[in-house]
Write a structure and sequence with these properties.
Largest sheet: 8 strands, mixed
Oligomer: single chain
Bound molecules: phosphoenolpyruvate, magnesium ion
Number of helices: 24
Number of domains: 3
CATH superfamily of the largest domain: Phosphoenolpyruvate-binding domains
Shape: globular
Structural class: alpha/beta
Mean pLDDT: 89
């Protein structure tokens, strides 16, 4: 049994499907004769297509973002044209009969070994570039992961280092029942994706890729954070029973989707969904969310082959608005940097502390035209439409730190409205909101509140900054806890100030969908919660079984505690009292 961090609840047993950095077909036989010639031609074809790609990317990024940002693609082209590098791959295919992908995998390992020992930052960055190029080549060589995994029967359990957006796209409609990753934690890509699809997942399991091979039977326990490779038959049977219980509970709770969301004493709540794209809107509707409280637009950029231009963005936002439950949509501007990067932004600039560095609006401010394109697209998507008379779009800015930034953002929005008027392009009025995820903003909430229409608390980041514990580092996950006493104090304060100022306040971090945290947030006066769609039915269930008075009483008790452990244990007792049927959904977090 291997231990990791429980990041998405549920239990599943299935067949492992390992995704290595460069996808290599398991047990591929040595190539001979014409197969070698064919493989060389495939490699050459992938190389040509990749060169075309990076040239196009360079032009597009130069036009839409700037010359400096586009320079990275010239570097990528140099790598694709490098005679020594290309020669090595060809040599291995020709003389050792290995596939092009295996040769690329070997090439990456070779340069990682050679360059990582130097400790030279410049060379380190070149490894990142080489990795990007190899991933691009590999995507042409593997066509679709979907086809390669087609040989395995039934749903798969993905085992990867970290699940990249490009890999998720490649998985397509393949049925994935579980996810296990070596890196990451509660709030990393893989975790967010797993939760948005309602898939049990465990992260931070070091070395799992070395210990598992495709085809192994694997148990994923997303409540306890356990992974078992090739369990004995008794263990497997026990976990299959748990899996059935989990699925039954999920099906049962799905009936809640049409119920209005209110507490046991009749107080109305808004349960909204966090989404990454139009596909998630269908989930949000199916699960009974009453709107979209957070559209993370990063995925639009991360999964785009180049850079989405204004028209493409307008089209995307309109499609999302159309698909969003009740046509209620909060769009967050690009939050890139930190753990999420796109090759053309912030990558040619290595930082010691990326989470505390150049991310989100800090980065967007330095590319004003690029930033404005997104703001204009959001304003245009909000233009009144007869087909959706009740539609509402809200504009949300991430990582706001101080009042100066809010003033700058207002000026930028106004300038873009003016530009749209001049261009005679229709746009709509949008509410202006800030995310509270930087402790400085939380501390100054009373001063900032006057400058915004609404607030959305990003507890994933707020917790990591408050506790000075990286949200993606499993070594400090015991500190990065949303139920820690200092976090509760800060949240209570922020929610109180917003309510007093009569401003709408939502919490859209992962804790909104966690039953224990939900009870406390309710007690703090929060009435709008935004979460991965799959948590909506269980939160509705819990809400229906708890009164405001009960939640206030448990909050009062918890605020007096000095340790996270005690708070969790009090909350667990309370949950088992009011809604014991939800026990299978509790994670060790
Ligand atoms: C957060 O920080 O809580 C949040 C919702 O944003 P993200 O997880 O995308 O950083
Ligand atoms: Mg955040």
């Amino acid at each position: 049994m291997r231990r990791g961090i429980a990041v998405s609840p549920g239990v599943t047993v299935g067949t492992a499907y390992c995704i290595h950095e460069v996808f290599v077909k398991p047990n591929a036989e040595k190539l001979v004769g014409p197969a070698i010639v064919h493989e060389l031609a495939r490699f050459e074809n992938a190389r040509r297509r990749s060169i075309d790609d990076v040239r196009l990317l360079q032009q597009k990024v130069q036009k839409q973002v700037g010359k400096d940002a586009a320079a990275i693609f010239a570097v990528h082209e140099t790598i694709l044209q490098d005679a020594a590098l290309v020669g090595k791959v060809r040599h291995w295919i020709q003389h050792e009969g290995i596939s092009a992908q295996e040769a690329l995998s070997r090439l990456l390992d070779f340069y990682k070994r050679v360059l990582s020992g130097t400790g030279d930052e410049y060379l380190q960055e070149r490894i990142d570039d080489l990795r990007d190029v190899i991933m691009r080549l590999s995507s042409y060589l593997s066509e679709a992961l979907q086809q390669d995994s087609g040989a395995l029967d039934g749903p798969i359990i993905v085992v990867a280092d970290e699940l990249l957006p490009s890999q998720v796209v490649m998985l397509g409609t393949r049925s994935v029942n579980g996810i296990v990753t070596q890196a990451g934690s509660q709030t990393s890509h893989a975790a967010i994706i797993a939760r948005s699809r309602g898939i049990p997942a465990v992260s931070g399991v070091s070395g799992i890729l070395r210990q598992t091979k495709t085809g192994d039977t694997i148990v994923v326990d997303g409540r306890e954070g356990h992974v078992i490779i090739n369990p004995d038959s008794e263990t497997e049977a026990a976990y299959r029973k748990l899996e059935r219980e989990f699925v039954d509970l999920r099906d049962q709770l799905a009936h809640n989707r049409d119920l209005p969301c209110r507490t046991a004493d009749g107080i109305e709540l808004e349960i909204l969904a966090n989404i990454n794209g139009v596909g998630d809107c269908r989930n949000a509707t199916a699960m009974g969310a009453c709107g979209v409280g957070l559209y993370r637009t990063e995925y639009l950029y991360l999964t785009h082959p180049s850079v989405p231009d204004e028209e493409e963005q307008v089209e995307n936002y309109r499609a999302v608005l159309k698909a969003a439950p009740n046509h209620q949509l909060t769009i967050r501007t690009l939050d890139i940097g930190g753990d999420k990067t796109v090759p053309f932004l912030g990558r040619n600039h290595r930082e010691a502390n990326p989470f505390m560095g150049w991310r989100s609006i800090r980065l967007s401010f330095e590319h004003p035209e690029f930033f404005s394109t997104q703001i204009r697209a959001i304003l245009r998507a909000a233009a009144p439409s007869r087909a959706m008379p009740k539609a509402r779009v809200q504009l949300l800015f991430p990582m706001v730190t101080n009042l100066e930034e809010l003033r700058r953002l207002h000026a930028l929005v106004n300038r873009n409205k003016q530009a749209l008027r001049q261009q005679k392009k229709p746009y709509g009025e949008v509410a202006f909101g800030m995310m509270v995820e930087v402790p400085a903003a939380a501390v100054m909430m009373d001063q900032l509140i006057g400058a915004v229409d609404f607030v959305s608390i990003g507890s994933n980041d707020l917790v990591q900054y408050l506790m000075a514990a990286d949200r993606d580092n499993p070594k400090v996950s015991h500190l990065c806890q949303p139920l820690a006493p200092p976090v509760l104090r800060v949240l209570s304060n922020v929610i109180g100030i917003c309510s007093k100022a009569n401003r709408s306040v939502t919490l859209c971090g992962e804790m909104a969908g966690q039953p224990l945290a939900f009870m406390l947030l309710l007690g703090m006066g929060l009435r709008r919660f935004s979460m991965s769609p799959h948590f909506v039915p269980s939160i509705k269930e819990l809400a229906a079984h708890i009164t405001i008075e009960q939640s206030e009483a448990i909050l009062k008790k918890c605020l007096k505690q000095t340790t996270t452990k005690k708070i969790k244990s009090l909350l667990k007792d309370q949950l088992l009292k009011v809604a014991p049927q939800l026990e299978p959904l509790l994670t060790e977090q």
